[in-house]
Design goal:
The chain is of the alpha/beta class. It contains 13 helices and 23 strands. Strands 6, 16, 17, 18, 19, 20, 21, 22 and 23 form a 9-stranded mixed beta sheet that branches. An 8-stranded parallel β-barrel has the order 7-8-9-10-11-13-14-15, surrounded by 5 helices. A 3-stranded antiparallel beta sheet has the order 3-4-5. The radius of gyration is 23 Å and the shape is globular. The N terminus is likely disordered.
């Protein structure tokens, strides 16, 4: 089969080769230029902006599928055929993403009734849905059990007792994993660091509470304890974070066996592999990292004479982040001599709050102008907030002006899922890109949609 670049007509034997040719000197190999025109997944982004309007979320479907297949193959090679990667759907939750995950053979990790409902509405198999979160309500628990989801990740004692009661009321035996806090520092943003002893998530090993948590779970007549869950953080680049986690978790699983006489069969190591947002950040070789984790796992299991558990992980960002791009239209350019200059666009913290929350870094491109003289601007949004900044100190063509299209890269994770209607702004649509065309996955909200729930 021959693949044709829709922008320049060049033919390639494989889509990866096509993307690499396009993506020379760009952040990712699904980004390129044909002349001065920016392309994403083989599509001219200016044409997409004209067709669908801005702000506009773009998602590269083939990149998402390739990332899923990468994880599935790495799991089979390193952990064996019974292992399973679970897409952490909080990264981007909408019906089409669950259809893709189902087609690719992934499990999904959910953190709310809303995510479960969306997955089920898309036809995702309930037995491959895992439900975690630190503050599930009675309604959440009732809905999850009634929906027949595969497994609850239980965060705390109160949830354990409530889930046991509800499963009994529904006459079911619910599978569970217990969330354990291993006390690992992943050297990442504090806001996405979830593995420390004093985290709001899980029950800590260090205080002795985790072993008590397991002992209590074993007395729950309506629950089937399958194993443990842990999650140390997000945007993890340090190579030994998951190995250190394995060391502690296998040791604890051996402690459970020795003290409680019960052998846990599953271990969910959470997610968190980092994604490049700028050229200065490294590219993580995820299959190689997974192989190293598997090697450490085998060593630790041999050390404690513990049988190899079934391994689960929860990649989210590393599946969808680099499959995303957001397009904006410039509304104004403000230059303050001796101070700074601003490029304001028709979106902002309503469709991408991550800089306001975390100071997150992004790569920004002009969609049509390149190679000329550049200037430094703060890229800002339209909200009535001084903190509505998409990215400070970005280099854009000096002659950037009203009506130009600006692209912000690597926005597939935690942009649409964290979008809001602040300032009563409608949320953008999601357009999925394939080699044979583009299609609408999520409609643009209308002004009428903003009032749909008002009385």
């Amino acid at each position: 089969m021959r693949y044709i670049d829709k922008v320049n007509g060049t033919k390639y034997n494989h889509p990866v080769k096509m993307e690499k040719q396009r993506g020379r000197n760009m952040l990712s190999d699904n980004i390129g230029r044909s002349g001065s025109r920016l392309t994403f997944a083989g599509h001219d982004v200016t044409h997409l902006a004209e067709q669908y309007g801005t702000p506009l979320y773009l998602m590269d479907e083939e990149r998402i599928r390739r990332n899923c297949r990468m994880y599935l193959q790495a799991f089979r090679s390193s952990f064996g055929g019974n292992s399973l990667p679970l897409y952490a759907s909080k990264a981007a939750s909408f019906k089409q993403i669950y259809r893709i995950m189902a087609q690719e053979g992934m499990g999904v990790d959910t953190v709310s009734s809303g995510e479960i409902f969306t997955a089920l509405s898309a036809g995702f198999p309930p037995e491959r849905i895992f439900f975690h979160g630190n503050s599930k309500t009675d309604a959440d628990i009732r809905y999850g059990v009634a929906s027949g989801i595969g497994c609850f990740v239980v965060d705390n004692t109160e949830e354990l007792l409530a889930l046991n009661r509800e499963a009994g009321c529904q006459g079911k035996k619910q599978k569970v994993l217990l969330r354990i806090t291993p006390g690992i520092d992943p050297h990442t943003y504090d806001a996405v660091n979830t593995g420390m002893v004093d985290s709001k998530f899980g029950v800590p090993v260090e205080t002795g509470q985790a072993i008590e948590f397991v002992a209590l779970a074993l007395t729950m007549e309506n629950l089937q304890l399958c194993g443990l869950h842990c999650h140390v953080g997000s945007q993890v680049f340090d190579e030994d974070v998951f190995e250190r986690t394995v060391d502690l978790m296998v040791r604890f699983m051996a402690q459970v066996r020795d003290e409680l006489g019960f052998t846990l069969e599953e271990l969910n190591l959470g997610g968190g592999y980092g994604t490049r947002y700028q050229d200065s950040e490294p590219q993580v070789d995820i299959p190689a990292r997974i192989a190293e984790v598997a090697k450490r796992l085998r060593e630790q299991c041999a050390k404690y004479a513990f049988p190899l558990p079934r391994i689960l992980m929860e990649p989210g960002r590393s599946i969808v982040a680099d499959a995303g791009m957001t397009l904006y239209t410039v509304s104004s350019v403000k230059r303050i001599p001796g101070y700074k200059s601003y490029v304001a666009v028709d979106g902002g913290m309503t469709d991408n709050p991550r800089y306001a929350l975390y100071g997150s870094r992004y790569t920004v491109y002009h969609a049509e102008k390149s190679g000329g003289k550049e200037a430094v601007f703060d890229l800002v949004g339209r909200c009535c907030e001084s903190g509505d900044i998409i990215q400070p100190k970005v280099s854009l063509p000096e002659d950037t002006c009203r009506g130009d299209i600006i692209a912000v890269c690597t926005t597939g994770a935690y942009n649409y899922s964290m979008a809001s209607n602040y300032n009563r702004l409608p949320r953008p649509p999601i357009v999925m890109l394939r080699e044979d065309g583009a299609y609408l996955a999520v409609k643009r909200e209308s002004l009428e949609d903003l009032c749909a729930l008002d009385i």
